[in-house]
Amino acid sequence: MSNNFKMLALIIFGLVFLFVFNDQYKSYNLNKTVLACMAAQKKTSNSLTVEESKKFCEENIRKMMDE
């Protein structure tokens, strides 16, 4: 019985741990993706400004994440 309780506690702790850190790193990954997209947009199109490319990338990435 004690062994089952330890295993259950470990699983619950692991799930809580993953839930908390998934939320933290989601914004980090989004920022990295936007920066990579901006760099690619700047290389392919010289007419875009930094603000335009950031707005374009954020809209497209958020749209792709919602699908």
Describe the protein's architecture and organization.
The chain has helices spanning 2-44, 50-66. The chain is rod-shaped and about 70 Å long. 90% of the residues lie in helices and 0% in strands. Helix 1 (2-44) packs antiparallel against helix 2 (50-66). It is mainly α. The protein has a domain at 25-67. It has 2 helices and no strands.
Give the helix/strand layout.
Elements: H1 2-44, H2 50-66
Short overview:
The chain is mainly alpha-helical.
Keywords:
90% helix, 67 residues
**Chain-averaged pLDDT:** 86
Task: Report the radius of gyration as a whole number of Å.
Answer: 20 Å
Spell the H/E element sequence: HH
Task: Specify the structural class.
Answer: mainly alpha
